Amino acid sequence: MTLFDIAIKNIKKNFYNYFVYFFSMIFSIVIYYTFVSLQYNQQVATASATSATVFYSFQSSAVILAIFSAIFIWYSNSFFTKKRKKEVGLYSLFGLRKRQIARMLFYENIVMGILALIFGILLGTLLSKLFSMILLNMMGTFVYIKFEIVPKAIIQTTIVFLIFIFIASIHSYSLIYRFKLIDLFKADSKKQKEPNPSLFFTFLGILILALCYYVAINAGVKLEFLSAFFGSLFLAILGTYVFFRSSLIWFLKRNKKNKNKFYKGTNIISTSQVLYRVKTNAVTLATLALLSAVTITAIGTVFSFVYMSDTAAKIASPFSFTVDYKNENVQNDLKNIIKDNNHKILNSVEGLEILKLEAKFNPKNSSGFFFFQNKSYVQLIKQSDYNKIADIKHFPKINLKNDKDTILFDGYYIGFGDFSFKDTDVTLMPNDRNINLKIIEDPYKKFVISASFADRVLVVKDDMYENLKDSSKIIKTSSYDISDQTDSEKLTNELVEFTKNNNIKFVDYYRPYKGTMESNGVLIFSGTFLGLVFLLSTGSIIYFKQLNEANEDKMRYKIISNIGISFKDIKKSISSQILTIFLSPLIIGLIHSTVAISKLSQLLGLSLVKPYLITSISYSVIYIIFYFLTVATYTRIIKQK
């Protein structure tokens, strides 16, 4: 029997233990192949109006996935190699040299990797049409897609993963030379000391996390945004590691002092065991908590972008169409085109005057005003005209009391947090005059009409408007709301051609909406599948760890069983221990992501509760499935004779 034959036999014998790793690896290959095939798929590129965005989005996603897969394969191979120390020791006793043992494990890794690669590419190819249709559906594009094999994707996926598998196998090969025979048999018999965490570090971990959340929530409000962002990121990483190193162990040990609970049933076993496990796996648990936070936040953010696609388009273009007002004939022709395309005009504001003037903002507090230049242009609208729009769009009505009072409307302001503009002085400069106004309220985070016509609007009293009026600086616009504006591609194309021929400026709702839907469709597609890969990988890491500990604890549980404790009680003890290992990183990850999403919601001025809840619940459900799978496998190993 050759070394290769032994390697194949070992794979068959240990396949149940390898299964989760094998499945996670296949899933990573399927998703990588999908990203690369969509990147090169001409049908998707043709169907998308933003084909460049699709190409670079999937290219970036493929790179992120490749890096993560490389780390996962490296870690998993190292784990399985170290896990088999006793087996390696037996081979050494039977006379095999380290070089032969290393070659055998090298063959195992290569065979497993190639099998995963073959299954991954085959499955990815078979599912490529389905994934293409899902992507286009998410992008709001409904076209027929033919089944297509993309040779570039097959070649790239094969090369990338063969390199990862080969490097990881070489690393496993080198690990064998570091093992000493005496250590191989003592691998499971190292004495464990009871962890004794410092009270100082216990509360330091909690304090760092509390400080992290304070800094994150106040980023851009009480603290400078970029500094606070990177500061909170550093504190989250540091605080999480200190929490799992000290704080969690301290709380578990304190729970041990509750005598009534500690001596009840199998709690004496599970409590003691979980202390050692948290201590041993502290770095892994902290890493998993951070990975969970990043995954939930990333997917939640992507879902929130899709959730607000329509809202974002309406903010940028409150009306379906806005055009330069030329004359009645042109307006009538435009209305006829709308009617001929079976759309109804629901609302209209025709002949709206907008006065464009140079202005200087003089804030009392400079915080948040960095995006205003020393001098900038503003657009003035009469209070009476604004209130007509307010009736149509359900904006708040305005009733200015003094001529010097004004209110600012700025849709761009939505991304700059809660900076206060109230009581800011604004100096208008019409025809070499200086007219001072005061913003009497915080600005409204919206555009009155399309941002292309009026991005920063000051609403003033009608008398003040007439006083400042300069015909050379006035533009007139007409805005229309139509029925079925999200399904107005044909009408929009005709109006684009009509306005171009008549030299009329034209801004519409549909094209930004469609572009946003396409971009967000790509984001949610890649974000969801990347998140699933991260989730499967993090779940697999805990699964591997618990599998290893099950083999180590097998003899301990046999002794416990011999002294009269039933297998039912043993299973209950195992479930309790593993639950702590699984829940602690999940809970910390959920807390981290809740703070991050809350801050994003604050910055965008939108409620993201719904997309966040969908994301976090979905993530938790899949994570808990891993928990039950781990408990089942763990108890099966313990039960084996």
Q: SSE layout and pairings?
A:
Elements: H1 3-13, H2 15-40, H3 42-47, H4 51-83, H5 85-93, H6 98-138, H7 151-176, H8 181-185, H9 199-217, H10 225-256, H11 259-262, H12 267-280, H13 282-307, H14 309-316, E1 321-324, H15 328-340, E2 345-362, E3 376-382, H16 383-393, E4 405-410, E5 425-428, E6 435-439, E7 456-460, H17 462-468, E8 474-482, H18 489-501, E9 506-508, H19 510-562, H20 567-604, H21 609-639
Parallel strand pairs: 3-7, 4-6
Antiparallel strand pairs: 1-8, 1-9, 2-3, 2-5, 2-8, 4-7, 5-6
Helix pairs in contact: 1-6, 2-4, 2-6, 2-7, 2-19, 4-7, 4-19, 6-7, 6-19, 9-10, 10-12, 10-13, 12-20, 13-19, 13-20, 13-21, 14-19, 19-20, 19-21, 20-21
Mean pLDDT: 79
Spatial strand arrangement across the major sheet: 2-3-7-4-6-5
Secondary-structure element sequence?
HHHHHHHHHHHHHHEHEEHEEEEHEHEHHH
Cα-to-Cα separation, first versus last residue: 28 Å
Largest sheet: 6 strands, mixed, barrel
Looking at how many chains there are and whether they match, the oligomeric state comes to: single chain
How many β-strands, per DSSP?
9
Structural class: alpha+beta
Q: How helical, in percent, are the residues?
A: 55-70%
Anisotropy-based shape: elongated
Q: What percent strand?
A: 5-15%
Radius of gyration: 32 Å
Helix tally equals 21
Q: Which regions are unreliable across 5 or more consecutive residues at pLDDT < 50?
A: 366-371
